[in-house]
Amino acid sequence: xxxxxxxxxxxTAARFTVRKANNVLGVMxxxxxxxxxxxxMSTTEAALLTRGVSQLYLSLGDSNADGSLALRLYxxxxxxxxxxxxxxxxxxxxxxxxxxxxRIGAPKPAARIAAQPAE
Length: 119
Hints:
about 120 residues, alpha+beta, four-stranded antiparallel beta sheet
């Protein structure tokens, strides 16, 4: 764990190396920032690691009396398919507009019949 000073905040950050079967998948560095000029308001900077269509989410929680920090780790499998679903919906809408036979437009005006004199 390391502490850094920014222009208007103090940051506590931690570095985690994510491994699977002794292969390094990535390095994640979540942090927690405290802003003394704003009455000690704090924010959390989460770390994300994307692997294929899955994501690993890591964030630091509040500190305990003994100096330890709470850690939140979430694994979100297939979360990027949400964006892929939106792309498929947009493509389906564009495809439906491409067939002229199925478009519903304004009705055509009725043909005018020439007036005939009454007998």
